[in-house]
Write a structure and sequence with these properties.
The chain is of the alpha+beta class. Helix content is about 60%, strand content about 15%. The protein folds into two domains: about 100 residues, N-terminal domain of the delta subunit of the F1F0-ATP synthase (Peroxidase, domain 1, Orthogonal Bundle), CATH 1.10.520; about 70 residues, no CATH class.
């Protein structure tokens, strides 16, 4: 997921505040619950984004809907997003907060796309290589199967993309052949 600079600033500030107070894991859990509620109730999102509804009314709505379910820090953060008209950034802020929390714990999440499912042994070898590559204490693999890549793997971890897929290799070869004069 692309995370904008603005969302990173909010994520950094929220991470610092959560470390001092409630704890990052609790805030992450609460923000994910808020996201689920927003997806379940699209009218809530419409109200929060509506330009003609006063900010004070939107903040009161947040308190009414989430006040009993989330900590004061999370509620204040949501109200801050409303005040600055940045509610659409919430998914990006959650992603940034998760990345910061993972890094703080020495954990790297790796999305691994392969043409066929990886065996346990292959997963463990991949985890070990990614630990060496990233310096992380722990690597969590998020496997995905996509037959379109034909073979090999595409790995997204620690802000890097390693494309070792056969489909990508063949595409590169095709581009090089277009440049060859016969």
């Amino acid at each position: 997921m692309f995370i904008s600079r603005i969302a990173r600033r909010y994520g950094r500030a929220l991470f610092a505040a959560a470390q001092e107070r409630e704890g990052v894991e609790g805030v992450l859990t609460e923000l994910r619950q808020v996201e689920v509620r927003r997806e379940e109730r699209p009218e809530l999102e419409e109200i929060l984004r509506h330009p003609h509804i006063p900010v004070v009314r939107k903040q009161a709505l947040l308190e009414e809907v989430f006040g009993e379910e989330v900590s004061a820090l999370t509620l204040n953060f949501l109200q801050l997003l409303v005040r600055h008209r940045r509610t659409e950034l919430l998914p990006q802020v959650i992603a940034d907060l998760q990345q910061r929390y993972d890094a703080w714990r020495g954990l790297v999440r790796a999305q691994v796309t392969t043409a066929v499912p990886l065996t346990r042994e292959e997963q463990e070898v991949l985890r070990q290589r990614l630990r060496e590559l990233t310096g992380a204490r722990k690597v969590v693999l998020e496997p995905e199967v996509d037959p379109a890549i034909i073979g090999g793997a595409i790995i997204r971890a620690a802000g890097r993309v390693i494309d070792g897929s056969v489909a990508s290799y063949l595409e590169g070869m095709r581009e090089r052949l277009k440049e060859v004069r016969v």
